[in-house]
Design goal:
It is built from 14 helices and two strands; from the N terminus they run H-H-H-H-H-H-E-E-H-H-H-H-H-H-H-H. Helix 4 packs across helix 13 (263-277) and helix 12 runs antiparallel to helix 13. It is mainly alpha-helical. The chain has a two-stranded antiparallel ribbon with strand order 1-2.
Length: 297
């Protein structure tokens, strides 16, 4: 939708812009005129080794049986978090707006995640998760759009559905093990800025943020199918306020180290609120207008 450059240049900038920014500012940070500011960079070991020089296998049997039994409680919370994170990411990727042709495989995905998590736990390696932001940006990078003259908006034309890009991305991630000394040149503000950009990019078209922005907009200037014209300003803002309070509760629990362990339980409470409490006050037609339709089972 930009007015600048040709379509090919815009596509190249869209696909390789973040990578180009990382290389450019990492090189800029090596200049003597910039190094005097002491911009922090990534702290990475020079050789590939496990944390603390430990053995490859985790010595489970050396842990007292009581401690192992007590670990079952946070393990159940962590399992529920993985379950919800994986399902949320999969449903966001497979939503109808993306016009994917291949069918979903939620059970197979969950089984694969369970096996991978079990193997990684035995070796004490970092767990995998759905990675909602990265997954959505991966889908968007493979999406081609076209302008709809009837609606006057850019709409999804098709999504290239392939496993090659996923394997390629993770192969390159694994290859960074051979580039450990070079990773120390990456400025932390640049890495943080790229993640902030990816998160902000994912917010485009978010109905929740759109309703916050248009909470006090004039109804006559909004489309006829806008929630404020269907439900009214009071009811739309009430639903948005409930979402804001739920988001604030999640953030509070996650930021507090004493309650962070119960974060998955709080997400379960949100599921109860959406499935059983909110339907008492909002109809399914109103949920659809608000951009939050009830998922089909």
């Amino acid at each position: 939708t930009s007015l600048y450059f040709s379509p090919k240049i815009r596509k190249v900038l869209k696909d390789f812009g973040p990578v180009a920014i990382i290389f450019a500012f990492s090189a800029l940070n090596r200049l003597s005129t910039v190094q005097k500011f002491g911009v922090p960079t990534l702290i990475v070991p020079n050789v590939f080794e496990l944390a603390g020089g430990r053995k490859f296998l985790i010595p489970f049997m050396t842990v007292p049986i009581k401690i192992r039994m007590l670990c079952a409680f946070p393990a159940m919370l962590l399992t529920s978090l993985f379950f919800m994170d994986q399902n949320i990411s999969a449903r966001v990727v497979n939503k109808e707006e993306n016009k994917l042709r291949k069918g979903a495989a939620y059970n197979i995905d969950m089984a694969a995640l369970g096996v991978i998590t079990g193997v990684l736990s035995v070796f004490g390696l970092p767990w995998m998760c759905g990675a909602t932001v990265q997954s959505m940006n991966h889908v968007r990078s493979l999406t081609s759009r076209k302008f709809d003259e009837e609606t006057g908006k850019m709409e999804i034309d098709k999504v290239i559905e392939t496993r090659a890009t996923g394997f390629g991305v993770h192969a390159m991630l694994a290859a960074t093990v051979c580039l450990l000394p070079l990773l120390t040149y990456l400025p932390i503000p640049v890495v943080s800025g790229v993640f902030l950009f990816l998160g902000r990019k994912l917010m485009t078209g978010n109905s929740f943020l759109g309703r916050i922005k248009q909470a006090f907009a004039e109804p006559a200037r909004l489309p006829k199918d806008h929630p404020i014209n269907i439900l009214g300003r009071k009811k739309m803002n009430t639903f948005t306020a409930i979402q804001i309070m739920c988001l604030a509760s999640l953030w509070t629990f996650k930021q507090n180290s004493a309650t962070a362990m119960f974060f998955p339980a709080v997400i379960s409470v949100l599921m109860v609120i959406r499935s059983w409490i909110l339907p008492r006050f909002f109809s399914e037609e109103e949920f659809i207008a608000l951009g939050d339709p009830t998922p089909k089972i």
